[in-house]
Write a structure and sequence with these properties.
- The complex is a heterodimer of chains A (about 150) and B (about 1150).
- Chain A has a single domain, classed as Lumazine/riboflavin synthase (Rossmann fold, 3-Layer(aba) Sandwich).
- Chain A has about 150 residues and is of the alpha/beta class.
- Chain A has a 4-stranded parallel sheet with strand order 2-1-3-4, with helices on both faces.
- In chain A, α2 crosses α5.
- In chain A, α4 links the parallel β3 and β4.
- By secondary structure, chain B is of the alpha/beta class.
- Chain B contains 35 helices and 50 strands.
- Chain B is elongated and about 135 Å long.
- Classes of the chains: A alpha/beta (about 150), B alpha/beta (about 1150).
- The interface between A and B is large, with 55 and 55 residues.
């Protein structure tokens, strides 16, 4: 994928109508990788904003739903590679929860492509850049979402 | 302290971080934006918020302007959260009333465009402002720290760290997976740039470690599990068995002198060999020897009798034939017999087949039996109990032998005139000469066994008579002595006989007249024996008739081949249907052709007769070899003895005890017709059961199935093993063989046997031949030693798991593994080392002193196809090699480098010195190393082809030796160990430090530190410095003596909790439990690590991780999205 292309301006950005991608990430791996991406000056779309958690295992599905309901166009979850969880298996619990959430999203009319779970290790700044850039461009293809008005729960 | 119900007054501080943030983000704009957010009392921006002045600004605002919440928008909270939390504390504000907004790594540094970066920074600040309003004051507690340390890895880093900590007064447990500490450094000869002798500076450290009373040294051990948290770790350590008692071993080395097994020496990087019982090098610490045992060898695993095959094969290889024979006789009292007739399942499982073909194990067994003699003594202890053994076949003789060894009084009853059972009457003399059998029976009886022949059970003696003679137990091994017919009409006519009866007659010297034409019906080994015997009795034409194809024949391939060689004809797919008689005498056999249908219960394809295919074989004698029966005319007199539906004696599977408690049985009478070795195996088991029975062990027979060692982890197949022809014993010419009853197969000669034993690959490494046990005067060797798991409690952990070399084989252009004279750097270190395979002489494999040597830098490192990093030490040690080679051999040295990297104290000076010594330093990557030289006079040399990139010329340099400097990679298993300690690794497997500059020995797991090459390639001085630093950090933690509990931990709202218990199931630390009296959940504060599994799983949302409550997260989400949308 072409990072530069994804970083260029898109219509609606100036007026604040551009995409919102929230990344709910683990402190020990993906957040660390994001810091590494920063230190090494790797660019990724500014539409992505990170929320730091101690572990993907503490991410309640309500948080993901709330992101969509408050206007997020895509939600990215970044956790440790299986076997690397700082708390043994929180990442695997997250995987199970997200698997269970997908049909619920579909039922609510939220395409499941708007939710991505990735494993990004602490040293994988480059992977973080690629994943976030790729995910943003995929969400961009789906267009802006309009779940803000939905009364899902 | 701020009250919860106070209106939020938020102070927002935007950091410029010099130009790091302000260069991209419009900090003034963000401050203006923040000022207008709800509940924001003030918003400021400042050049360096982390500076004293910045922190003072916050303190002053809290004190003077009544702020009760603080947002700092600067760098990552992973960097400065503690800094600003301390500032809040100093201002009297609870440190958890702070939220950081990461606008440096999170915006300024990752955004291309200033406007976008500013917009993002606004959103991040808005989110933090929104979130911090939901923050609540939190408190922590102090927890004590266990004042001891664990160091994993006993190389120079681990030793240095352990010594530093121990000298500070803290007890250290040092765990090393190898048998000796010292690590890679102990393998080196000299060290750059000072050319200190590695042993001279390394071994004193090793001794110091071993002698330090505060260091608990655990070698040959591995960390299996790490539980707990900073200051309070519980570590499970597996102490692998050494099989040598540390307290007794004096390190004299007598054991290694007698060990028959040699394998490549890991210590010498495969250049030399070591024995199975070994000490890597004379200066090893501890100096205790160690036995290398892998899983049980596949041959021994396949042997029904469990004979230690690898053991006796190795002993034969050493010329210790008597010892080999003794080892065989331990489990097989009939080695001469089995060396001739065993169907050798061991050979089918031999791993040598992966190289060429199986070792001729049976021939070696026979060789031992034929070339050595033993003199078994009577048992040391005599026991009064009497045991009767009925039957003197292999089961009876073996059981008698095993029981007699335990001191019991044994009497063998045999119905025939001579002992031996089927071995005498069933197996023809040309396969098993009677004198061999007689000699072996003689040896068994010699230990004090009484044999009564011509005694038939039921006639000459009975169970009652045995009782009255005070026998305490009976072993019934009556075999399957009856033959069976085809079940056709006229079965009993003259000229038709069963093979069992025929062979008995023939073997007992009553040579029956078979006429000129003989037909043998059947496809088993007995049929082959009968056919070959018929030839020797004068038959001109012998035909074996079998109803399936040759593939399905149960006879062993070599028996079929032997019969064919001697002229036996085969008629497969032929089924007898009628005897043809003339005057009551048989003259022929009418048969039908068959074709094979679907497989039957035995898995073999069922023969189906073809209609109208009748044809006749003319015969003077027809021998039926289609099965054996158990003959027990006495059965009706012993009604208590139970039989199986197959007509065999019923026994308990484990104990081989029959339905009559004092009677045990084994052999063909239990299993149906089987092999000699299976009979011996059954006898061994029964003997063990009888012995337990007589010992009155209650429950007498609690034997478990034999639990063999797993069979998978074997000595790896050596790479350089050359295929060799398998030794085949000589055979008598068929024309001569069929003229008489002389033994057909010959024994191996000494030379062939030695060669053959040398083909064994020593799958189990230690062959358990027990030669070392006999050699050790201190009785220090214990082959039964078991692995042991221990637990230690420590406060901190230092990982020093080290490095190894990248295998250069994939870089085929350099020929490593293909060309003999291409070495790795560590191999050269050993070659050059006084304790190495050449005692420090630099010699080629064929013993020449090299005249020209090539050294290739950056093999696999700085290479995108392999490892893209620089391994840091290779330039320097390559220069050291060049110097040592020049000094010791005077050879010309060509060193091929990409860039010369000499960053270190006195390193550049060393480089200059080597240049001045006349070493050819050539800048250019080597294209190829080949053994095809340009000039005929260089035959036998290697040719190094490279471009000198400074002169632009292609060089083709003939050399005698090439040394590769491969990339350093993390030691095998270091990732797994890092995971146990909660430390992550980078894409190459190097352990990740907390911060590359400011926390180079700490890790993200608080209380876990890294030292040495496990964190990345480095030289010895850096390693030692880093190890001291890691020890310093660890000592700081231990001396402080406490750590605080996490504020970010789970709490349960007791008013909401329904007591469902899901939290107790998801908590990985067992911190959640249900209070029985209230039926609600409670989290143990000390155990909770704050992962939040419980809070995300809690159906009633009673569980919350403090500082990560859903209210806080929701506020952060809406803060982010509202700002972005505004």
């Amino acid at each position: 994928m072409n990072t530069q292309d994804n970083l260029k301006r898109h219509p609606g950005e100036e007026t604040g109508q551009d995409l919102n991608v929230l990344a709910l990430v683990c402190n020990w791996c993906t957040y660390t990788a994001a810091d590494l991406a920063g230190v090494t000056r790797l660019k990724y779309p500014t539409q992505v904003k990170l929320i730091r958690f101690m572990c993907t295992g503490m991410i309640d599905v309500r948080y993901i739903l709330r992101c969509f309901l408050e206007g997020a166009d895509g939600v990215f979850i970044g956790g440790c590679h299986p076997g690397d969880c700082h708390y043994l298996s929180g990442n695997l619990k997250a995987r199970v929860r997200i698997k269970g959430l997908r049909p619920v999203l579909e039922m609510a009319g939220i395409p499941e492509q708007r939710l991505r779970l990735s494993w990004i290790g602490a040293s994988e700044g480059k992977k973080l850049q690629e994943e976030l850039t790729g995910f943003t461009s995929e969400v961009r293809k789906l267009g802006p979402a309009s779940f803000r008005q939905m009364h899902l729960v | 302290m701020v009250m919860n119900n106070q209106e939020p007054h938020v102070g927002v501080y935007i950091c410029h971080c010099g130009q790091n943030i302000a260069g991209k983000v419009d900090v003034q704009d963000v401050a203006r934006f923040a000022k207008n957010l709800e509940h924001v009392a003030l918003a400021r921006h400042y050049q360096f918020m982390c500076s004293d002045q910045g922190q003072e600004m916050i303190i002053s605002d809290v004190v003077n302007n009544g702020l009760n919440r603080v947002v700092v928008a600067s760098c990552s909270p992973r960097m400065h959260l503690p800094t600003f939390a301390r500032a809040c504390s100093r201002a009297g504000l609870n440190p958890y009333m702070l939220q950081m907004s990461n606008i440096r790594e999170g915006s300024a540094w990752v955004s291309l465009d200033g406007k976008q970066a500013t917009r993002k920074a606004r959103a991040l600040v808005a989110a933090a402002v929104s979130r911090v309003q939901k923050h609540r004051p939190l408190t922590t507690r102090k927890i004590g720290v266990n004042k001891s340390l664990l160091v994993i890895g006993g190389g120079i880093a681990g030793m240095q760290a352990a010594l530093t900590a121990a000298e500070s007064g803290f007890p250290v447990t040092l765990v090393e997976k190898e048998a000796s500490i010292g690590g890679q450094m102990a393998k080196l000869d000299k060290t750059f740039p000072t050319l200190d002798c590695a042993a001279c500076i390394g071994t004193p450290k090793m001794v110091e470690v071993a002698q330090n009373p505060d260091i608990n040294l655990l070698t040959h051990s591995e960390v299996k599990e790490i539980n707990g948290f900073v200051g309070n770790y519980t570590v499970t350590i597996l102490k692998k068995p050494r099989y040598v008692l540390h307290e007794r071993c004096t390190g004299c080395g007598e054991c290694a002198g007698v060990c028959p097994v040699t394998v490549p020496s890991e210590w010498n990087e495969g250049l030399g060999s070591r024995t199975a019982i070994y000490r890597s090098f004379p200066q090893a610490v501890p100096g205790t020897f160690c036995i290398d045992k892998k899983d049980r060898a596949p041959c021994t695993g396949a042997c029904p009798a469990g004979v230690n095959i690898q053991g006796y094969v190795q002993l034969i290889g050493q010329g210790k034939y008597r010892e080999a024979l003794e080892l065989i006789r331990e489990r097989l009292p009939l080695p001469g017999v089995l060396g001739r007739v065993c169907p050798h399942p061991c050979e089918s499982n031999c791993r040598r087949t992966d190289v060429d073909s199986a070792v001729s194990i049976r021939a070696l067994k026979r060789f031992a039996a034929d070339n050595a003699s033993v003199d078994p003594a009577a048992p040391e202890v005599e026991r009064p109990e009497k045991v009767a053994v009925i039957g003197s076949g292999p089961a009876g003789l073996a059981a008698a032998c095993f029981l007699r060894r335990q001191g019991f009084q044994i009497t063998i009853y045999e119905s025939a005139e001579h002992l031996g059972g089927m071995m005498r009457t069933g197996i023809p003399d040309f396969r098993l000469p009677p004198d061999v059998l007689d000699a072996e029976i003689e040896l068994i009886l010699k230990t004090g066994i009484e044999a009564r022949t011509s005694q038939s059970f039921g006639q000459d003696f009975t169970l009652d008579s045995l009782r009255s003679e005070n026998f305490s137990a009976v072993f019934l091994a009556i075999g399957a002595q009856g033959g069976t017919g085809l079940g056709l009409k006229d079965e009993g006519c003259s000229g038709v006989m069963d093979a069992v009866g025929f062979l008995r007659e023939a073997n007992l010297g009553r040579r029956p007249d078979v006429g000129g034409r003989v037909v043998v019906v059947g496809g088993g080994n007995v049929a082959m024996d009968a056919a070959r015997m018929a030839l020797r009795l004068g038959a001109r034409e012998v035909t074996v008739v079998y109803r399936r194809s040759e593939e399905e024949m149960p006879a062993h391939a070599e028996e079929i081949e032997a019969a064919r060689q001697e002229g036996v004809k085969f008629s497969h797919l032929t089924q007898p249907c009628r005897y043809i008689l003339e005057n009551g005498c048989v003259t022929g056999l009418e048969c039908l052709s068959t074709s094979l249908g679907s497989p039957d219960a035995s898995g073999r394809r069922r023969p189906e007769p073809v209609a109208d295919s009748e044809h006749v074989y003319h015969a003077d004698t027809i021998i039926t070899a289609v099965g054996q029966r158990i003959l027990a005319p006495w059965a009706s007199a012993v009604p208590e003895l139970e039989w199986t539906p197959k007509g065999t004696i019923w026994v308990d599977e484990q104990t081989l005890q029959t339905s009559i408690p004092w009677i045990f049985a084994a052999g063909d009478a239990v299993s149906g017709p089987a092999t000699v070795v299976q009979a011996v195996a059954g006898a061994r088991r029964a003997a063990e059961a009888i012995s337990r029975y007589l010992d009155k062990k209650e429950p007498a027979l609690d034997m478990q199935p034999e639990n063999p060692r797993p069979e998978k982890n074997w000595n790896p197949l050596p790479k350089d093993v050359k295929p060799l022809q398998r030794a085949l014993p000589g055979q008598l010419e068929p024309q001569i063989a069929t003229q008489g009853f002389q033994e057909v197969e010959k024994t191996l000669d000494v030379e062939a046997a030695q060669l053959e034993a040398g083909r064994c690959l020593n799958c189990a490494v230690c062959s358990e031949c027990m030669q070392c046990v006999n050699a050790c005067e201190r009785e220090a060797i214990d082959h039964g030693m078991q692995a042991e798991e221990i637990q230690v409690d420590v406060g901190g952990i230092i990982l020093a798991t080290g490095y190894e070399l990248y295998n250069p084989e994939p870089l085929t252009q350099y020929g490593y593994g293909l060309l003999d004279e291409v070495y790795t750097s560590l191999q050269f270190e050993r070659l050059n080392n006084a304790t190495g395979p050449t005692q420090g002489q630099i010699l080629t494999r064929d013993g020449r002193t090299p005249e020209k040597v090539g050294i290739i830098h950056c093999v696999g490192s700085r290479d995108k196809n392999h490892k893209d990093y620089c391994s840091r030490v290779c330039c320097m040690y390559s220069l050291k090699f060049a110097h040592l080679i020049r000094e010791r051999t005077g050879a010309e040295v060509y060193s091929f480098y990409i860039d010369m990297r000499t960053p270190g104290k006195n390193y550049e000076e060393f480089y200059n010195r080597i240049q001045a010594e006349g070493v050819h330093l050539i800048r250019g990557r080597v294209a190829q190393v080949t053994d095809v030289p340009d000039n005929p006079e260089d035959a036998g040399r290697l040719l190094v082809v490279a471009e000198n990139t400074l002169s632009g010329k292609v060089l083709r340099i003939p050399v005698d030796m090439v040394i590769l400097s491969p990339a350093m990679i993390p030691a095998a298993g270091s990732t797994e160990t890092a995971r146990l300690a909660g430390v992550s690794t980078d894409s190459h497997g190097w352990l990740t430090e907390l911060h590359p500059k400011l926390a180079p020995v700490s890790t993200q797991s608080s209380g876990v530190f890294v030292a040495g090459c496990c964190q990345g390639p480095k030289d010895i001085p850096d390693t030692v410095a880093q190890a001291s630093a890691a020890a310093g950090e660890a000592v700081a933690l231990l001396s402080k003596g406490w750590v605080s509990t996490l504020a970010e931990r789970a709490v349960i709202d007791q008013d909401i909790c329904s007591g469902c218990g899901i939290c107790t199931q998801v908590c990985p630390y067992g911190a959640a439990s249900i209070l029985p009296e209230k039926r609600t959940a409670l989290i143990n504060e000390a155990l909770c690590r704050g992962c939040g599994s419980c809070s995300a799983s809690c159906p009633s949302k009673a569980s919350t991780v403090q500082q990560f409550s859903s209210r806080q997260i929701f506020s952060e989400i809406s803060g982010l999205l509202k700002a972005a949308g505004s």
